[in-house]
Write a structure and sequence with these properties.
This protein has a single domain, classed as 4-Layer Sandwich (Purple Acid Phosphatase, chain A, domain 2), CATH 3.60.21. Helix content is 30%, strand content 16%. It contains 9 helices and 13 strands. The strands form 3 sheets. The chain has a 5-stranded mixed β-sheet with strand order 3-2-1-12-13, covered by helices on one side. It is globular, with a radius of gyration of 18 Å. It binds manganese (II) ion. The site of manganese (II) ion has 5 residues, from loops.
Length: 281
């Protein structure tokens, strides 16, 4: 058996098929971990979604910010970007099944035997391992429950504090912060305060940190007992700062799609080249 983690696919179905061929993936023997953002931007989001969903328990797939946007829109939360970007899922005849599958995706995966964790974007530097896992499990429970999903997602996405709200804040506020961290975080101030957007910068390429930048990648400030695999940071590319491994190598932007063998101490990497479906903003 082999376990592979795969970076942000973004609907690049033919590249995903090529990568699975390259690693000689055998569904009866191997396991796949998807870091999230399997959909949107690329040429075949629906095909990618169905392929990954049909892997069943042979794959672990995390909730990325793009899956979260689909869940939010399908749950009925008003979202202008949803109607612009998620027509493929809105119009799918199996949309009820896809919605049920998407909303059940985990926010974080932790494999104690391999000593490897995985999250789509990042973790708040103030959390230890148990705190991060506990927040992920509470979020997953809220997303799966019709009675709580609307409470969690209504108003989500407007403004997030740069530090986790205190215990005295509402449970929903604290969990919305955790949801934003796990699906969107990239950089912090050197004291651990989160930087959600760089002042005066509208381009995503601003997140390509230079050595003289006042900001730090989130993982530089985190104390963690094991390896963490993350995605969501295409401009940083494949990043190996052991024990932190960034897998988003900009597939949909004409970069590469990356798989890393998780159950091997050297974590060897396999990559396939991708067409440039989207120009980076
Ligand atoms: Mn993302």
């Amino acid at each position: 058996m082999a376990v592979y983690a795969i970076g942000d696919v973004h609907g690049c179905l033919s590249e995903l098929r090529m990568l699975l061929k390259e690693i000689a993936f055998q569904p009866g023997r191997d396991r796949l971990w998807f870091v999230g953002d399997i959909i949107n931007r690329g040429p075949d989001s629906l095909g990618t979604l169905r392929l990954v969903r049909d892997l069943g328990d042979r794959a672990v797939t995390l909730m990325g910010n793009h899956e979260l946007r689909a869940v939010s829109g399908l749950s009925g939360c008003p979202d202008r970007a949803f109607s612009k970007q998620m027509g493929f899922v809105q119009q799918a005849e199996d949309r009820a099944e896809l919605y049920a599958w998407l909303r059940a995706l985990p926010l974080m995966h932790h494999d104690p035997e391999l000593g490897v964790s995985m999250v789509h974007a990042g973790l708040f530097p103030g959390w230890d391992q148990a705190q991060a896992i506990e927040r992920a499990r509470r979020l997953e429970k809220m997303l799966r429950d019709d009675a709580t999903i609307g409470t969690l997602l209504t108003g989500f996405g407007s403004d997030f504090p740069d530090w986790e709200p205190q215990e005295s804040a509402s449970e929903v506020e604290r969990l919305q912060f955790a949801l934003a961290v796990m699906t969107r975080l990239r950089i912090c101030h050197s004291d651990g305060r989160i930087v959600w957007s760089i002042p005066g910068e509208t381009s995503g390429t601003a997140f390509r940190l230079t050595p003289d930048s006042p900001y730090r990648p989130w993982h530089r400030l985190l104390a963690w007992p094991g390896r963490i695999i993350y995605g969501h940071w295409a401009v940083a590319g494949l990043t190996r700062n052991d024990p932190f491994i960034g897998l988003d190598s900009g597939c949909v932007y004409g970069g590469k799609l990356t798989a890393i063998r998780v159950d091997h101490p050297d974590m060897p990497v396999t990559q396939v080249p991708c067409s440039r479906y989207v120009v980076p903003e």
